[in-house]
Automatic annotation (TrEMBL):
Pathway: Cofactor biosynthesis; thiamine diphosphate biosynthesis; thiamine diphosphate from thiamine phosphate: step 1/1. Reaction mechanism of ThiL seems to utilize a direct, inline transfer of the gamma-phosphate of ATP to TMP rather than a phosphorylated enzyme intermediate. InterPro entries: PurM-like_C_dom (IPR010918), PurM-like_C_sf (IPR036676), PurM-like_N (IPR016188), PurM-like_N_sf (IPR036921), ThiL-like (IPR006283). It is an enzyme of class 2 (transferase). Its EC number is 2.7.4.16. This is Thiamine-monophosphate kinase. CDD domains: ThiL. It comes from Diaphorobacter ruginosibacter. Residues 23-133 form the PurM-like N-terminal domain. Mg(2+) 4 binds at D25, S40, D70. The gene is thiL. Mg(2+) 1 binds at S41, D42, D117.
Length: 321
């Protein structure tokens, strides 16, 4: 099968919202008058971001999910995406699974595949996604104010625990491994929550490299510090509820610096708690209040009684560190 048959067979579908999809030099997107276009790219490299033998259906899902997660963090509504794919060879079983996982999630969010590029080379997947947001309503990293609450959506840490299990660093009972692996391989982008938080959250980002590191991006851009209740964050982790016994340091590493969570971390004024909870309810997404924005710089971790915890080496992921 050649390059163009491959594109026609696995990545070409009739477009609905876009004016022109796959098949010409450019796709043409219809953008509603007065809206801003939100754009983001994410690259997934075999051996770096995923195991080469991962279920291709899950990989297709995750490749788009991490991009949808960026739109969610900006409060943008998904429109369309392009797919740049480098493949070692034409493996139809792989292409079938990958495209199904990818397009099923795309359909869930009404986000159309409108173009891309296909080359032979090491397995590498790069998606650029387009969304729309009314001017002035995008959620930014820079809007947190001293006194705001800090919230996270969903559950943190389980993806990292699954990765540690796959690398043989911890042993998990099979049912727990299954749950954690699902979080690693099939994250749920919080698009509905991001949309519901427009006008409520003062800042937001998605947690991809680990909570503390990602939160520090909000704090730097907002010129503030934070106090985080470590126990409140630990309670979000699904594996934590299972009675599994692990060293404290490992729990903290997973939850505070694990990465691959694709949850939203956001701030909102303390007076907006009811609105945050209503937004979460409407988006059918759990949210947990984990701390507050403070004067100064950096993150102070405290226990449930507000006593400071020693900050350990819970470094977030950095490709070049
Ligand atoms: P060009 O050489 O003009 O950049 P190509 O010949 O590479 O275009 O691609 C032909 C068409 O197929 C284009 O419309 C391009 O957007 C689309 N395309 C290529 N690869 C993919 C892919 N992996 N997924 C979706 N569309 C693709
Ligand atoms: Mg061209």
């Amino acid at each position: 099968m050649g390059e163009f048959d491959l594109i026609a067979r696995y990545f070409t579908r009739p477009v609905r919202r876009a004016a022109l999809g796959v098949g010409d030099d450019c796709a043409l997107l219809r953008v509603e008058a007065g809206m801003q276009l939100a754009v983001s790219s994410d690259m997934l490299v075999a051996g770096r971001h995923f195991f080469e033998d991962v279920d291709p259906r899950h990989l297709g899902h995750k490749s788009l999910a991490v991009n949808l997660s960026d739109l969610a963090a900006s409060g943008a509504k998904p429109l369309a995406f392009t797919l740049a794919l480098s493949l070692p060879s034409v493996d139809e079983h792989w292409l079938q699974g990958f495209s199904q996982g990818l397009l099923a999630l795309a359909d869930q969010h009404g986000c159309e595949l409108v173009g891309g590029d296909t080359t032979q080379g090491p397995l590498n997947i790069c998606i650029t996604i387009f969304g729309e947001v009314p001017p002035g309503q995008a959620l930014l990293r820079s809007g947190a104010r001293v006194g705001d609450d800090i919230w996270v959506s969903g559950t943190l840490g389980d993806a990292r625990l699954a990765l540690d299990a796959m690398l043989g660093k911890v042993h998990l009972p099979p049912d727990l491994f299954k749950v954690a692996r699902q979080r690693l391989e099939c994250p749920t982008p919080r698009v509905a929550l991001g949309l519901a938080l427009r006008g409520i959250a003062s800042s937001a980002l998605d947690v991809s490299d680990g909570l503390l590191g990602d939160l520090s991006h909000i704090l730097k851009q907002s010129l503030a510090g934070a106090e985080i209740d470590a126990e409140a964050v630990l309670q979000t982790m699904q594996a934590r509820q299972s009675g599994l016994s692990l060293p404290d340091d490992l729990w903290c590493q997973c939850v505070l610096a694990g990465g691959d969570d694709y949850e939203l971390a956001f701030t909102a004024p303390a007076g907006a708690r009811e609105h945050v909870l209503a937004a979460a309810h409407s988006a059918q997404t759990r949210v947990t209040r984990i701390g507050r924005v403070t004067e100064g710089q950096g993150i102070r971790l405290v226990d449930a009684r507000g006593q400071p915890l020693a900050r350990q080496r819970w470094n977030s992921f950095d490709h070049f560190a």
